[in-house]
Every structure is written in structure tokens, then in C-alpha cells.
Amino acid sequence: MSQRLQIFTSHLSHNNVLTLKVFLGLTKADEVANWEYTDDPDTAAALLIDADSKEGNLQLKDWVRKNNRQVLIAFSNRMEGFPENVLVLPRPLRSAELIPVLRQASKQFLSSFNEKEEQCFSKASQISSLSNEIDVEDKPIRIYRVLEVLYNNKNKIIKVTDRIARIVIFNLERRRYYTTHFSQMEIEDLIASPVSDMQVEELNYEQLARAIQNLKAQDLDAPLWIAALAISNDQLLDGLSLTGSYRLNRWPNLKKLGQDPLHMKLTALVRRGGTINQFTDLLKVPAEDVIGFINACHILNYLEHREEPAMLKKMLDSNKQSNASKRSLFSRIRSRLGI
Question: Do both 210 and 229 map to the same domain?
Fold first, then answer.
């Protein structure tokens, strides 16, 4: 079971703090620790300090001298010149660098915590505990996508900037997006892209009003739907399981989302409720088609999900699709949906 850890920041800009809060949502599925933001340094497992500012650098040195239990993370343009136990997070703030640093911080904090616990146990018990608690070296780092950032921040306003400085603003509460640079097909590609390729920040309503003065709101449902289908790859999104029971709480607008005949049949079935195995057996279709539909409904909040472990123990065989390019995958989905 993953641990809940908190992080405190010092001397970071307001925008960097907002961006950090967005990225922390990406740790929810981590098997070791999921991170949350806190305004209380005494409860924090890690302290993130802007070491490039004069005040922040002085504070970092002071915290190093105090040698508290917290893990210290320097936010800096330089990678060297810090004490041995201080982790370094390079600028600018990107999830590709942040997630590995947080994993290191988890390991460092839990190691320190377990060392204190060891005093109460025998040496054999100590070794067993440590191997169970902090075996994180070889765990792969997930590829998080923009789609997951948007879903984990569904009531917020998120600004995404790609590597060539093109901007799109997502108002998740109203399910609208604003851009001058992207076509809808490009928006679908962006939503399905790794978040490590983007700069992501949270906006408030005042910043939103200034940013969209001359922009037209565009509907976000269809791009979210297409992207969820495209990246499913026979895998359910976090929070869903093959042993669960699913039921639609509202009808998808398939006129807007694409009138795929299979999705029409699945809509009627899932509206009544059941398991993925049941839907697959009734329609005689590949499991990946049902999984894609379930993922897309989940992203648009059309789905009710509950676990029924006694009802379903047999797991689906995993029939991986051949490695087609992302572009051809999007094309096939659009062709099936008639859009």
C-alpha cells in the first residue's frame, strides 16, 4: 500500500506552486508514495526550496544545518554545489524531472523513517521490513499523459504549452478549450501525448479571462473521447479494474462523439450494468474494444463503477494489438466514428 506524503515549498513563484500542485496529481497511482501539497513545513516529508534566490539559498543552508527529518530538494538551474543529501530539481518545472525526484525523496524519507522503527525490532525483522517498505529501485516510471492531468484536475483551469510554444487552455469544469494554434485533430494528439513533453500550469479565473479575450470556446468532449480510445491499448485507466461492475449514469451523445455501431450497442448494455467479461461475451467482440469504451466513458464522467470481487475471478486474456503508429490509430478510430 502506498504511503501518503506531503511536500512544502519555499520561495517558489505562485505559478510554479500551482504547476507543482497539478503535477502532484500524477503520483496518485504510484505504488510507493503519493504526494500532496501542504502549507505546514512541520508535517511535510519533503521541503522544496528555490535555491537560485538569495533568500532561498540561505534558508536551504539553514535547514541543512538543522538536519531535520525532512528530505531537502533544491529547485535550481545548477546541478552541483549542494550538500550530499540534498536532491536537485532542475528548472523549469516539468513532470519528467519532478516525478523521479519525488521517487528519490520517497525512498530517502521512508528509509530514514524505517531506521528509527528498527530499534523496536530484531535484526531479522528489520531486514524484512526494509525490503517490503522501500524496494523501489527497479520500479518503472509510468508515462503520464496530458489526458490524465486533465482528468485529475477536472474542476480546474489548465494551460498547456507544447515544445514549440503553442498554447491551449482547458476549462475542465465547463469542458471547453481555447486555442489559436491547434486544429481539433491536433488537440486530440496533444491530449494523448506524454505530459513530459509539455509545460503545464494552473490558471485562476482572472488569468483565464485575460487569456481568452479574443478566443472562442470549443467543446472538449470529442477530443477527450477520441484520445481516451486511442491510448487505451487494452489497458484500463487508473481506478478501474477488470473485476469491477460498470453502469452508465447518463447517455453519451454519440451524435457528437461519433456514431460507432459498437458504441451504440455498448451504450445500451452498459446502461443496464455489468462486467467487462459480460459485455465482451454478449457482443462477441475483442476485450480491447470494450475497455476503450469504458475508459472513454470514465474520462467524461458517464460511468458508475463498483468492485465485485466474488462475482468475477477470471481475468481477460491480454491480446495486444500490433504496434501501429499513433497517427494510424487515430485515423482508424476517426474512420469508425465517422468524424
Answer: no
* Domain with 319 in it: 223-337
For the chain, how big is the Rg over CA atoms in Å? 23
The rounded distance, in Å, linking the Cα atoms of 81 and 14 is 26
Q: What is the Cα–Cα distance from 51 to 83, expressed in whole angstroms?
A: 12
Residues 228 and 282 in one domain: yes
* CA 268 to the chain's CA centroid: 30
**Whose CA is closest to 336, among 258, 253, 283?**
258
Spatial separation of the C-alpha atoms in residues 58 and 154, rounded to whole Å = 38
Q: Which of 241, 248, 243 is nearest to 266 (CA)?
A: 248
In a domain, 140, yes or no: no
Cβ burial of 229 (10 Å; 0-12, 13-18, 19+) is buried
Q: How far is CA 190 from CA 61, 200, 207, 226, in A?
A: 41, 12, 22, 11
Per the DSSP assignment, residues forming a β-bridge with 12 are none
Tell me how far apart the 2 most distant CA atoms of the chain are, in Å: 68
Residues 177 and 201 placed together within one structural domain of the fold: yes
pLDDT in tens, 195-218: 887 889 999 999 999 999 989 999
d(CA 191, CA 194): 8
| Per-residue pLDDT tens over the stretch 22-74 | 999 888 877 788 899 999 887 888 999 999 999 999 999 988 888 677 899 99
pTM: 0.59
Number of C-beta neighbours around residue 205 at 10 A: 9
> Which of 213, 230, 233 has its CA nearest to residue 222?
230
Cα 145 from chain centroid (whole Å)? 7
